[in-house]
Design a protein that fits this description.
About 45% of the residues lie in helices and about 10% in strands. The protein is an alpha/beta fold. α8 runs antiparallel to α9. Pfam families: DDE_Tnp_IS66, DUF6444.
Length: about 475
């Protein structure tokens, strides 16, 4: 073999080795990316993602820390707090007099002596000795007319429709236990049987729920109309299982109003049919999902979501800009709260410019720490560019910065969307307690009644009284606190 042939052979071998090394390097890069993805998935919990706290398990992670700063106040009630201690009644139902029988000094008999006028009262609040249902029998009699001899029979009250039925108070209690306290039907039957010795079937409870649902049609319409007119609206959605299939629960709420609706769809088809967002012209606070952004109202993004995502980028990916961005948002939130406490309506232009400058600097640092890989971003199954989590977060913070900082420009806009998340949380609890809804009707019944009760609770009304009036045919309408 000549020298030229040997050289050509060596060059060919080198090219093969170089191609093999490049192939292995690409494979290693893919494996590293896969490992990072799996590690990131395992490291996510409620403090650095949108996963619920119930998914964290029983072991408390040492990395979990609250983003709140200490107020410096001692635990418990603060000075000036009225408190809710048990207070003595001015009109006790029973009075038991305790009289001394002998003198504590000389042992003289005092049984025949009159008691002094002053006394020391102590009261015990207890359940009645016997809990039983109060039965009222309605009797209709007939009378014979002395003129024409016609026999006329009296009519029963409109509310008394059956030979035997439960009264509005009993029905109100049953519906309250199911839709507000979230007890399953069987446990409500068991509880009422234990207390009142009254056998009750789940079918009777279903009829009570259906009756309440029909009575609350007008209050729900009032709530929906009021929500379209508020200045700030909180929106959120979550999965809901109906008839074994995944549906979606949509909530629209304010500090005084709540509306729930379930739908087979998550997107615009559902929100359009619900009808609140299409007519809304104020500021909608949400998690940035694209479906909300299609509506022609002002939009504000939930910064609690951003803080969790920033915690993940800082703790798991070790990117320092994320921690600084967290500090920026928290500092701005505190400055807004201080200004609001001083009855100011906005921050000064100089302070806003200061925060906006810091904001832009941190965006630039984040983009520098997350450059696109050589050859561009890999594509997903549908051909869309698939970026890293930090890059997706940075794009949102950059392109929608006005929506992120809306709480600083408008003091009536909150920092986060926690109100809607709290309103949704108890419906998730209901799913965990009782499982999925067995019918479309059952889900609709629950959404309307629960939304009404949540609204009345926010407005300081007694829920049992509101339900009692509902079963009496006069459901209280919510106050239009917009």
């Amino acid at each position: 073999m000549t020298l030229e042939e040997q050289l050509a052979q060596l060059q060919n071998d080198y090219a093969q080795l170089e191609a093999k090394a490049a192939s292995q390097a690409a494979l290693i890069a893919q494996l590293i990316e896969r490992i990072q993805t799996l590690e990131a998935r395992l490291s996510q919990d409620s403090h650095n993602s949108s996963k619920p706290p119930s998914s964290d398990g029983f072991k408390r992670s040492p990395k979990k820390r609250s983003l709140r700063k200490s107020s410096g106040k001692k635990p418990g009630g603060q000075p000036g707090h009225e408190g809710q201690a048990l207070k003595q009644s001015e009109n006790p139902d029973t009075v038991i007099a305790h009289l001394p029988t002998t003198c504590e000094k000389c042992q003289t008999d005092l049984t025949k002596e009159a008691a002094l006028p002053h006394f020391e009262p102590r009261q015990v609040f207890e359940l009645p000795t016997q809990l039983k249902l109060h039965v009222t029998e309605h009797r209709t009699y007939s009378k014979k007319c002395p003129t024409c001899q016609t026999v006329t029979k009296a009519k029963f009250p409109q509310s008394v429709k059956n030979w035997v039925q439960y009264g509005p108070g009993f029905r109100a209690l049953a519906v309250y236990l199911i839709t507000y306290q979230l007890l399953p039907y069987a446990r409500v039957c068991e509880l009422l049987n234990e207390i009142y010795s009254e056998s009750l079937s789940p079918g009777s409870l279903v009829n009570m729920i259906a009756e309440c649902y029909e009575q609350l049609a007008e209050p729900e319409k009032t709530i929906k109309t009021a929500l379209t007119q508020v200045k700030v609206l909180h929106c959120d959605e979550t999965g809901l299982y109906v008839e074994g299939k995944r549906h979606w629960l949509h909530v629209a709420s304010t500090p005084h109003l709540t509306h729930y609706a379930h739908h087979l769809r998550r997107g615009s088809k559902a929100t359009d049919e619900i009808g609140i967002l299409p007519a809304f012209q104020g500021a909608a606070i949400h998690d940035g999902w694209s479906n909300y952004l299609r509506y022609a109202c002002t939009h504000g993004l939930c910064n609690a979501h951003h803080l969790r995502e920033l915690a993940f980028v800082h703790e798991q990916l070790k990117q320092a800009w994320a921690a600084e961005f967290t500090t920026l948002l928290v500092d701005l939130k505190e400055e807004v709260e201080v200004a609001r406490a001083r009855s100011e309506t906005s921050l000064s232009s100089a302070r806003l410019a200061h925060f906006e400058e810091r904001y832009q600097q941190l965006i630039a640092q984040g983009l520098a720490a997350n450059p696109p890989p050589q050859g561009g971003w890999p594509c997903g199954k549908r051909g869309k560019p698939r970026q890293s989590k930090p890059k997706n977060l940075l794009d949102r913070l950059d392109k929608q910065r006005h929506q992120v900082l809306l709480f600083a420009y408008r003091f009536d806009v909150p920092f986060d969307n926690n109100l809607a998340e709290r309103d949704i949380r108890m419906v998730k609890v209901q799913q965990k307690v009782s499982g999925c809804f067995r019918s479309q009707e059952g889900a609709s019944f629950f959404c309307r009644i629960r939304g009404y009760l949540s609204t009345m609770k926010k407005q300081g009304e007694n829920l049992l009284v509101a339900l009692l009036d509902t079963f009496c045919g006069q459901p209280p309408l919510p106050k239009l606190l917009v």
